[in-house]
């Protein structure tokens, strides 16, 4: 059975508007708009369900405006295991200009209580009895620290589960120390981890080696890792200097990431294997919107794993799926034949480790 759980700790109602040009500091007129339930894990779930997976969704969802999420989950037929919390799920604004540039205005989200987190952890433990693959994607809501998120990854990993972790900044800094099975940073997110800008394939490959060194060198604090507000933003090596939270459980160890997938945008995808890299290059497509492209890439990698495809087939499919995503409005797979056609035009090159 192709069973998978997607976790969205901080979902959002996305308000998307297309306009000719965003006039900062003055009035901008929107040509078209859309309002829909979203969040990185929700997007991954939608794509995987359309591909044919059996999907369970969980995370934290505000009680006050859950209707659009409930309608979506019912419409795409996924198992809804979201924890309902007090308050309203956030609204995020995405403004897409004529030149395809996107401006995001992301709000902080609901406030999660200790009781909410306890219920969520119990849900994860229950789902772990019948699922082996989990996708934890997106940002953190108020009340959830990067350390707590990392501990959930560690909990699932210790139960023998594979965890795909797709987040950024402090959450990613902590999460990679819990040895997730796969992470998918883009160039900017990987550059943040190693504290340097990245602008080439070679730079990304070198940064991956530097990331391994930083993970190996970082030592868990005696009582815990630091909380979000006190974490320095320079790089992962700063973790030791931050203030610990005595009440939180420490992370015991850190291992290199088994699957490091780097999204390069129009330049394709890098995937690190045991002793080499795979670099996929997609065909040129007319870009309509990049919203959801990264989530679609994650879904494609998961689908390849669920089908036990070889590395090249998995990467070419995931790259084709992501290429289709940028050529359309909205998240989903309207036509698998188009994905197959794109897949035939993707080149994959093997690169020896530097």
From TrEMBL:
Q: Does the keyword Kinase apply?
A: yes
The molecular function terms in GO held by this entry are: ATP binding; phosphofructokinase activity
Carbohydrate kinase PfkB domain residues are 13-211, 254-333
Pfam families linked = PfkB
Sorted alphabetically, which keywords does the UniProt record give? Answer: ATP-binding, Kinase, Nucleotide-binding, Transferase
InterPro entries listed in its UniProt record = Carboh/pur_kinase_PfkB_CS (IPR002173), PfkB_dom (IPR011611), Ribokinase-like (IPR029056), Tagatose/fructose_Pkinase (IPR017583)
Q: Which PANTHER family match?
A: 1-PHOSPHOFRUCTOKINASE (PTHR46566:SF5), 1-PHOSPHOFRUCTOKINASE-RELATED (PTHR46566)
Give the family this protein belongs to, as stated in its UniProt record: Belongs to the carbohydrate kinase PfkB family.
**Name under which the protein is recorded:** Phosphofructokinase
Q: Which organism is it from?
A: Vibrio penaeicida
* Gene for this chain: fruK
């Amino acid at each position: 059975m192709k069973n998978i759980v997607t976790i969205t700790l901080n979902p959002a109602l996305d308000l998307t508007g297309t306009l000719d040009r965003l006039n900062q500091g003055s009035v901008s007129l929107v040509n078209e708009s859309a309002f829909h339930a979203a969040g990185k894990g929700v997007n991954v779930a939608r794509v995987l369900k359309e591909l044919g997976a059996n999907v369970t969704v969980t995370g934290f969802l505000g009680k006050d405006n859950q209707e659009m999420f409930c309608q979506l989950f019912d419409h795409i037929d996924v198992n809804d295991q979201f924890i309902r919390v007090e308050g309203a799920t956030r609204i995020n604004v995405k403004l897409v200009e004529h030149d395809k540039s996107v401006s995001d205005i992301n709000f902080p989200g609901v406030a999660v209580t200790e009781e909410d987190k306890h219920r969520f952890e119990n849900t994860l433990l229950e789902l772990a009895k019948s699922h082996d693959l989990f996708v934890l994607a997106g940002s953190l809501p108020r009340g959830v620290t990067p350390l707590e998120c990392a501990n959930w990854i560690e909990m699932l990993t210790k139960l023998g589960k594979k965890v795909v972790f797709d987040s950024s900044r402090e959450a990613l800094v902590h999460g990679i120390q819990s040895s997730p099975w796969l992470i998918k940073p883009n160039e900017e997110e990987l550059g943040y981890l190693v504290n340097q800008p990245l602008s080439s394939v070679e730079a990304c490959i070198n940064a991956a080696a530097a990331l391994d060194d930083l993970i190996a060198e970082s030592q868990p604090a005696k009582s815990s890792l630091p909380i979000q507000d006190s974490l320095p933003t320079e790089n992962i090596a700063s973790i030791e200097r931050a203030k610990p939270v005595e009440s939180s459980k420490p992370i015991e160890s850190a291992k290199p990431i088994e699957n490091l997938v780097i999204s390069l945008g129009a330049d394709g995808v890098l995937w690190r294997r045991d002793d080499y890299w795979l670099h996929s290059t997609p065909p040129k497509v007319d870009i309509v919107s990049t919203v959801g492209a990264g989530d679609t890439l994650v879904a494609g990698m998961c689908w390849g794993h669920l089908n036990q495809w070889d590395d090249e087939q998995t990467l070419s499919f995931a790259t084709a799926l992501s290429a289709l995503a940028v050529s359309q409005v909205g998240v989903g797979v309207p036509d698998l034949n188009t994905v197959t056609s794109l897949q035939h035009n993707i080149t994959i090159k093997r690169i020896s480790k530097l």
